[in-house]
């Protein structure tokens, strides 16, 4: 298993009518790697992630995630990945404990596993005192950290994090990144999207999508050097500006 | 590109009036203190930024300043007018862009601008010249429904709608949140042009790097202002020597440094770790040497340490550090 990349995309393509949202994208992400998946609004990130998570079939090329084919083994992929989005992750009208139990049930964990992992998560996040509070009532930063832990509840090989740190304070952001590093140190692969380009530098490697294609890929240091730039922000602006799109294709709009 | 704060403040003084004067403002929602004893003033033609995370009180403050919410205690004056008792006068003279996309998604670009113009008793044609620098970027898509615009274009349209009645001051609540980095830069360039025309701009953002586009910033956290100053002064107020640590084993090095007795704070910062020493009066060179030695002896042979200037973000974290732990209780 260790020989197979956690994510392996080969000429992955998705067309919507005449529009090509994702155009022959090829990249690999290794086990335990933290991979930043960057691009301007409308560049094709959302469509690519929907394919990699088994929610949308490719129209060309292929990809495997955690060793499963995204087109023919979509259901297996859903069981072997975690997903966390800034937009939706937890049920706000359930308590912290109830959310963990609900997701444990969805992922078919035994009651004993759910009990053990609930204790572990509450301890790690120091949420013991808040276990029976509604998620709505706990601060945003704690909710995002909890959402991350819940996304890892079934110990997936790959976790997709879609703008996980949006709107949180800088200390919480760093606590969040430490959770990512800790999971990566245990072998979990993380694919992260973010609009905070300083955060891209927290990743082992990054890719920058422009108009459906991967325009650059490498470690943050390599990309800065290649583009003779001071920061990933500068690299991004240089790549993305000429082709920035005035509107987002329907496929890229949030659901 | 960033104008000097001193210039902006001098301009404010010359005009003899503050654009915004806020005096001991309080607002509570149930048990939650959204604003706790907030006071500050903003000069004319200043770009003033409120920097802080969600839930810090930014939106409550903007709603009060835009005359949409009444404070529990304290006073706020905008352009010399009280936000509670003189709201009718004020509403014609201020522009407000709320945080969430506030336009009509089913109306076209053109229809949105015309609608907001009509609310203020004017027309797009009459106001065309002064919004043209922004509106011209949207005109190729003027028939498109607002909901089908990209994040960056939506924000430009919202800015047009907030500007169409020629306000003297703009309140922009998180105009760049969720917008990609390229569009964020373009948006700030537009704000620079508006400032040059004499507009006062009050803006909030969770992005620490945008602090440097402001003349002055207020760091806001849990309803309190942590500090108000120029971005440079805020950064410089970090009161310890700061060091950047580079190693291929960032996370393990972080854990190791946390256990070292000399460590005051250590946290990830981009590709590096930022380290502040707990001891005082020790030469930076010596700290670099000791750190490298400590790291080498703990298996980080490739570790490189160098002094690094603190940023607004370092300063923000230092100031909120003490507040951080207790919140969930």
How do the SSEs of chain B run, as a string of H and E?
HEEEHEEHEHHHEHEEEHEHEEHEH
Question: How would the global form of chain A be characterised?
Answer: globular
The gyration radius over C-alpha positions of chain A equals 18 Å
| Helix/sheet category of chain A | alpha/beta
* Fraction of residues in H or I helices of chain B: 25-40%
Kindly report the average pLDDT value of chain A.
Answer: 90
- Strand sequence of the main sheet of chain B, in spatial order? 6-7-8-3-9-10
Oligomer: heterodimer
By DSSP (H or I, 4+ residues per run), the number of helices of chain A equals 9
Quick one: which chains have the greatest interface?
A: A-B, 49 and 45 residues
Helical stretch count of chain B? 11
Give the structural class of chain B. alpha/beta
- Approximate shape of chain B: elongated
Radius of gyration over C-alpha positions of chain B, nearest whole angstrom = 23 Å
In terms of per-residue confidence, which ranges of chain A show pLDDT below 50 for 5 or more consecutive residues?
Answer: none
Which sheet architecture does the biggest sheet of chain A show?
Answer: 6 strands, mixed
User: What is the CA–CA distance across the termini of chain B?
Assistant: 44 Å
Notes on the protein architecture:
- The complex is a heterodimer of chains A (255) and B (329).
- Chain A has helices at residues 45-52, 74-80, 96-106, 111-124, 140-151, 170-185, 197-200, 220-226, 232-240, and strands at residues 7-16, 19-29, 34-39, 60-65, 68-69, 81-85, 158-162, 189-193, 205-210, 213-218.
- Chain A has 255 residues and is α/β, with parallel strands linked by helices.
- The mean pLDDT of chain A is 90.
- The two termini of chain A are 34 Å apart.
- In chain A, the strands form 2 sheets. In chain A, strands 6-7-8-3-9-10 form a 6-stranded mixed beta sheet. A 4-stranded antiparallel beta sheet of chain A has the order 2-1-4-5, covered by helices on one side.
- Chain A contains 9 helices and 10 strands.
- In chain A, helix 3 packs across helix 4 (111-124) and helix 5 (140-151) runs parallel beside helix 6.
- Chain B is 36% helix and 26% strand.
- Chain B has helices at 5-15, 58-65, 87-93, 109-119, 124-138, 151-163, 181-196, 231-236, 250-258, 284-297, 312-320; strands spanning 18-29, 32-43, 47-51, 73-78, 81-82, 94-97, 169-173, 200-205, 216-221, 224-229, 242-246, 263-269, 272-277, 304-307.
- In chain B, strands 6-7-8-3-9-10 form a 6-stranded mixed beta sheet, sandwiched between helices.
- In chain B, helix 5 (124-138) packs antiparallel against helix 6 (151-163).
- At the A-B interface, helix 5, helix 6, helix 7 and helix 9 of A face helix 6, helix 7, helix 9 and helix 11 of B.
């Amino acid at each position: 298993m260790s020989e197979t990349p956690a994510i392996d995309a080969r000429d992955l393509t998705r067309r919507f009518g005449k529009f090509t949202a994702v155009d022959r994208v090829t990249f690999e992400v290794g086990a335990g790697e933290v991979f930043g998946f960057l691009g301007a609004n409308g560049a094709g990130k959302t469509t690519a992630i929907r394919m990699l998570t088994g929610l949308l079939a490719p129209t060309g090329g292929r990809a495997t995630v955690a060793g499963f084919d995204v087109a023919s083994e979509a259901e297996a992929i859903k069981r072997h990945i975690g997903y966390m989005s800034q937009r939706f992750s937890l049920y706000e009208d359930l308590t912290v404990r109830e959310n963990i139990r609900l997701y444990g049930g969805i992922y078919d964990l035994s009651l004993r596993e759910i009990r053990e992992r609930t204790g572990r998560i509450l301890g790690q996040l120091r949420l013991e005192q808040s276990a029976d509070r509604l998620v709505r009532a706990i601060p945003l930063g704690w909710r995002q950290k909890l959402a991350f832990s819940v996304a890892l509840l079934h110990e997936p090989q790959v976790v997709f994090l879609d703008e996980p740190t949006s709107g949180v304070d800088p200390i919480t952001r760093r606590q969040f990144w430490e959770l990512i590093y800790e999971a990566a140190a245990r072998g979990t692969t993380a694919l992260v999207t973010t609009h905070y380009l300083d955060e891209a530098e927290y990743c082992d490697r990054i890719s920058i999508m422009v108009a459906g294609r991967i325009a650059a890929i490498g470690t943050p240091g390599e990309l800065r050097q290649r583009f003779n730039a001071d920061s990933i922000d500068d690299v991004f602006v240089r790549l993305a500006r000429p082709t920035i799109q005035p509107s987002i294709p329907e496929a890229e709009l949030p659901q | 590109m960033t104008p000097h704060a001193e210039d902006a403040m001098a301009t404010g003084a010359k005009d003899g009036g503050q654009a915004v004067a806020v005096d001991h403002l309080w607002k509570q929602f149930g048990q939650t203190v959204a604003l706790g004893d907030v006071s500050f003033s903003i000069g004319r033609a200043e770009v003033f930024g409120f920097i802080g995370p969600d839930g810090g009180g930014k939106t409550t403050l903007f709603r009060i300043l835009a005359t949409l919410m009444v404070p529990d205690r304290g006073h706020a004056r905008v352009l010399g007018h009280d936000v509670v008792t003189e709201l009718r006068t004020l509403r014609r003279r201020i522009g407000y862009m709320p945080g969430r996309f506030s336009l009509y998604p089913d109306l076209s670009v053109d229809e949105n601008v015309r609608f907001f113009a009509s609310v203020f008793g004017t027309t797009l044609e009459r106001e065309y010249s002064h919004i043209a620098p922004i509106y011209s970027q949207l005109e190729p898509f003027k028939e498109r429904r607002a909901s089908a615009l990209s994040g960056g274009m939506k924000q430009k349209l919202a800015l047009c709608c907030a500007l169409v009645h020629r306000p003297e001051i703009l309140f922009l609540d998180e105009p760049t949140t969720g917008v990609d980095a390229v569009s964020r830069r373009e948006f700030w360039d537009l704000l620079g042009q508006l400032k040059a025309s004499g507009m006062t701009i009050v803006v909030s953002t969770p992005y620490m790097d945008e602090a440097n586009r402001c003349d002055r910033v207020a760091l806001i956290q849990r309803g309190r202002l942590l500090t108000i100053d120029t971005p440079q002064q805020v950064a410089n107020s970090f009161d310890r020597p700061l060091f950047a640590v580079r190693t291929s084993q960032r996370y393990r090095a972080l854990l190791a440094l946390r256990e070292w007795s000399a460590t005051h704070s250590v946290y990830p910062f981009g590709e590096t770790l930022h380290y502040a020493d707990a001891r005082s009066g020790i030469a930076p060179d010596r700290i670099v040497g000791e750190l490298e030695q400590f790291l080498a002896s703990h298996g980080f042979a490739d570790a490189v340490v160098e002094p690094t200037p603190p940023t607004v973000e370092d300063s923000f974290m230092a100031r909120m550090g003490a507040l951080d732990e207790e919140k969930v209780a």
